[in-house]
TrEMBL record:
Taxonomic source organism: Candidatus Electrothrix aarhusensis
Protein name: Putative AAA-ATPase
Pfam families found in the cross-reference section: AAA-ATPase_like
Entry keyword set: Membrane, Transmembrane, Transmembrane helix
Superkingdom of origin organism: Bacteria
Record domain AAA-ATPase-like: where: 4-220
Length: 482
């Protein structure tokens, strides 16, 4: 079984016999849901592979390969009328270096030009067209030039990781984000040009992926043609693995090593499952990258589980986007996170739009919406007219505790020794001796200043203790139910 861990090119996966979980039924569903769609999901959730499947399905250049690429899949058995009928213009805005405004704009402009030139080369528009594109200075001028060059054609526009660099900018400076995205900003002007081309019919269809809606929502009328399907029940399982799909993936390990399948699914569920993207949906989905990491890291010869269940790539990616926790009132956000750590759940109501207006406060429900988009919480139920949200799994829980520990150390100017906590927990696990753990907790609490203790209540102390305990993976921490 060739695992597509880290692979996002649909054609490569299909033609080189990688394992592929068929999500092509959602291609037809998208086609029926209007022409301009947006589907946002947390980091490493299969977005790029889904976009790649759209590319090969709709690109006129791959019409002769349709049977090979899609014939055995759901959409290939019942193809839609529009398959292989477009020229594909694709943008990928991941990996754009940030810093100051000039750096962002230079790199954004360069990425736009690269994608436009790639389009011209793939469809043989000729050297003069490329020269004309290069001669334009701004991203909006470049893309408008291309739209004029192919005004007689029908374009399917794909934008992957649309907010990747914007989130990085936002994590550094709200003012810089507003300058780039807000009225008169270069990024906003770029999307306004796309909106105009859609109105003219040049951009016949559009699909955008990313993590949060902040960037699109902050452009207000600059780009208001897209339909956000992120919380739509029909697309709850469009990305990610269902329980049945995950069971099928681990079956070779179960059979080879004689493992207990239900117990294995229980453990994987605790670590990687738990995502529900619609209040009307029932079935949760697993993070696909996490599941593939586990299977790839599993020692098949020795039948040994991975040394660590958390993929370092996941930790790195989610660690970067955690900078968005500082948006708005950092103290109020911290209190919301503290409530999540202590209770394992919070009550609120997420918003459909996350418009960052510097004249409006960024409130608790705005922050809850941000956490939901990023995958740091998931829908769990309802409480009267509000929703109940919880931490989806152990991976996200661990990331929370790591973040909370760093915040505690920074705020209180103390250093917590993970090694000391791990040794104390090991003493408890091996010898049923809790005394070293009590002493270590007391030692850490003694490091706090009198000012820190003045604002400490039982909830805050509990959060500190839980954060310390989570530095060891000997035990799993289960929050008390409400």
């Amino acid at each position: 079984m060739k695992l597509p861990y880290g692979e996002s090119n649909f054609k490569k996966i299909i033609t080189q016999d990688f394992l592929y979980i068929d999500k092509t039924e959602y291609i037809a569903a998208l086609e029926e849901n209007g022409s301009y769609n947006i589907l946002l999901r947390p980091r490493r959730f299969g977005k790029s592979l889904f976009i790649s499947s759209l590319w090969y399905y709709y690109d006129i250049s791959f019409k002769e390969e349709f049977a090979v690429l899609f014939g055995h899949l759901a959409v290939g058995k019942n193809p839609t009328p529009l398959h292989n009928s477009y020229q594909i213009l694709a943008f990928d805005f991941s990996g754009i270096a940030t810093g100051d405004v000039a750096t962002v704009l230079r790199n954004f402009t360069g990425r736009v030009e690269t994608c436009l030139l790639d389009f011209l080369e793939r469809y043989d528009y000729g050297h003069e067209a490329a020269v004309e594109i290069r001669a334009k200075e701004s991203p909006q001028e470049k893309v408008d030039c291309l739209f004029r060059l192919c005004r007689e054609k029908k374009i399917y526009l794909l934008i992957d990781e649309y907010d990747h660099f914007a989130n990085a900018v936002l994590g550094e400076s709200l003012e810089m984000f507003t300058e780039i995205i807000g009225k008169g900003g270069v990024v906003r002007a770029f999307y306004e040009t796309i909106k105009i081309a859609a109105g003219r019919g040049t951009v016949d269809r559009l699909f955008i992926t990313g993590v949060t809606s902040i960037t699109l929502d902050s452009m207000t009328s600059g780009f208001n043609i897209g339909k956000n399907l992120s919380f739509d029940k029909e697309f709850n399982q469009a990305m990610g693995f269902t329980r049945q799909e995950t069971e099928a993936l681990i079956r070779p390990l179960v059979d080879t090593c004689g493992l207990d399948a239900p117990e294995m699914m229980r453990i994987l569920g605790n670590w990687y499952n738990g995502y529900l993207f619609s209040s009307r949906a029932v079935d949760k989905v697993f993070n696909p990258d996490m599941v593939l990491y586990f299977i790839d890291s599993f020692d098949r010869e020795g039948c040994v589980w991975p040394e660590q269940m958390l993929d370092d790539n996941i930790a790195s990616d989610y660690g970067k986007i955690m900078r968005l926790f500082g948006i708005g009132d950092r103290e109020n956000n911290f209190q919301t996170l503290e409530e999540l750590i202590v209770n394992g759940e919070i009550v609120g109501r997420h918003k459909g739009k996350l418009d960052l207006d510097m004249n409006k406060p960024f409130e608790r429900n705005d922050f809850i919406s941000l956490l939901l988009y990023m995958g740091f919480i998931t829908l769990s139920g309802t409480v009267l007219s509000q929703y109940l949200y919880k931490v989806p799994n152990y991976v996200i829980q661990k990331l929370y505790y790591d973040y909370f520990r760093a915040e505690i150390e920074q705020r209180s100017r103390i250093t917590v020794s993970s090694r000391a906590v791990e040794n104390a927990v090991a003493e408890l696990a091996l010898h049923n001796n809790i005394k070293p753990l009590i002493e270590e907790i007391g030692r850490v609490l003694a490091l706090f200043s009198n000012r820190d203790f003045m604002r400490m209540d039982e909830k805050h102390i509990k959060a500190v203790i839980l954060t310390l305990l989570y530095q060891s993976e000997v035990y799993f921490i289960q929050s008390e139910p409400r």
